[in-house]
């Protein structure tokens, strides 16, 4: 028997909302570099910018942490893992990698995360992987290589590559942990509470790493230059905290709950495309023909992955999560 039309349309709407949230998250995350670069050029250390970003977002989300104060007793491992991996780990490893290898190489290695998510799903969770989802990852990774122009400055610094790979592994933790409890119904931890406590944990860890007491605080009282235009440093910091962190993490986690870690991970590759386009428009960093072509390939890979059909005979396909998994099970039972 076919699935009821109302159930099917509800599942389609849920997936559409999830895709929209994933795109919003990629847009928010992608805008962080455009705002952070002028602050760094004005004299702030990159790790200090990261600390300001996470600590500021933790303060914004603090009321939600108080509201969900029972969460640390219920899910301490989830909160600690999210803070260490999804918040502090990704940021610290990526910026440390930048000090040893080119930006393009570090970004490409970090965005191997969707492929690593597929490996986690296939070999750790032992769930089937659709060919379309795998193809989407391959296309996204190949397109990303063109976007960041990895051939323009390849370096084989072993420690730098390991740090970038560490950032990719931490990003896998972000997608996997964000999906925890997505099918647990009323027992699922509130995603906003998870984000709030994750930011608090991340801020504590980054305080030790970044040592903000040595920061040039006077930079924040002046202006930074955005493609020749003077912009208040505090305005750029506000964008980084409110949009590139709070909005980015909230929409990102909610998208994983409605899609799946692997599909959301591939859509997140659009962050590199968005970051490159924004740098072109706002910072005057022009796009080359290979970058434009690579961006189109990333878009194609993300679309193929999110629209892939369930594998034949698979109860839990790679391209379906949450409500979609339940819908698939209903159709099979019917």
Structure description:
- This protein is an all-alpha fold and 334 residues long.
- The protein has one domain.
- It is built from 16 helices and two strands.
- A two-stranded antiparallel ribbon has the order 1-2.
- A hairpin with a 2-residue loop joins strand 1 and strand 2.
- The chain is globular and about 55 Å long.
- The N terminus and C terminus are likely disordered.
Offer a concise description of the structure.
The protein has 334 residues and is mostly helical. It is built from 16 helices and two strands. A hairpin with a 2-residue loop joins β1 and β2 (229-232).
Task: Looking at this protein, list some descriptive labels.
single chain, 334 residues, mainly alpha, two-stranded antiparallel sheet, 16 helices, 71% helix, membrane, transmembrane helix
Number of strands: 2
Distance between the termini: 5 Å
Task: Tell me the β content.
Answer: under 5%
Mean pLDDT: 77
Domain EamA: 18-147, 159-304
Region (Disordered): 313-334
GO cellular component, one term: membrane
Transmembrane segments: 46-66, 78-97, 103-121, 133-152, 158-178, 190-210, 230-251, 263-283
Write the layout of secondary structure elements.
Layout: H1 5-30, H2 32-41, H3 46-60, H4 62-67, H5 71-74, H6 76-98, H7 103-110, H8 113-124, H9 131-147, H10 158-178, H11 191-210, E1 223-226, E2 229-232, H12 233-258, H13 261-267, H14 270-283, H15 289-306, H16 323-333
Antiparallel strand pairs: 1-2
Helix pairs in contact: 1-12, 1-14, 2-12, 3-6, 3-11, 3-12, 6-10, 6-11, 7-10, 8-10, 8-13, 9-15, 10-13, 12-13, 13-15
């Amino acid at each position: 028997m076919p699935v009821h039309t109302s159930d099917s349309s509800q599942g389609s709407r849920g997936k559409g909302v999830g895709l929209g949230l994933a795109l919003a998250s990629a847009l928010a995350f992608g805008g962080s570099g455009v705002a952070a670069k002028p602050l760094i050029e004005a004299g702030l250390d990159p790790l200090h910018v990261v600390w300001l970003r996470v600590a500021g977002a933790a303060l914004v989300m603090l009321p939600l942490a108080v509201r969900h104060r029972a969460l640390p007793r219920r899910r301490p491992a989830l909160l600690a893992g999210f803070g260490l991996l999804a918040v502090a780990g990704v940021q610290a490893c990526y910026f440390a990698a930048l000090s040893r290898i080119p930006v393009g190489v570090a970004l490409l290695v970090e965005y191997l995360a969707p492929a690593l998510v597929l490996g986690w799903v296939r070999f750790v969770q032992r769930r089937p992987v659709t060919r379309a989802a795998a193809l989407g990852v391959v296309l996204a990774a190949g397109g990303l290589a063109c976007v960041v122009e990895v051939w323009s400055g390849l370096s084989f610094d072993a420690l730098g590559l390991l740090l970038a790979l560490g950032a990719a592994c931490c990003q896998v933790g972000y997608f996997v942990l964000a999906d925890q409890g997505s099918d647990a119904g009323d027992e699922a931890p509130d995603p906003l509470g998870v984000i709030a406590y994750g930011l608090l944990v991340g801020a504590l860890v980054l305080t030790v790493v970044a040592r903000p007491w040595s920061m040039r605080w006077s930079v924040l009282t002046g202006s930074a230059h955005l493609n020749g235009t003077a912009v208040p440093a505090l305005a750029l910091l506000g964008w980084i905290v409110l949009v590139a962190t709070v909005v980015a993490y909230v929409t990102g986690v909610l998208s994983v709950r409605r899609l799946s870690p692997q599909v959301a991970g591939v859509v997140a590759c659009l962050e590199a495309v968005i970051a490159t386009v924004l740098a072109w428009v706002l910072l005057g960093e022009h796009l080359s023909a290979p970058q434009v072509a690579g961006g189109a390939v990333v878009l194609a890979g993300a679309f193929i992955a999110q629209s892939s059909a369930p594998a034949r005979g698979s109860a839990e396909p790679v391209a379906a999560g949450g409500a979609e998994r339940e819908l698939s099970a209903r159709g099979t039972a019917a």
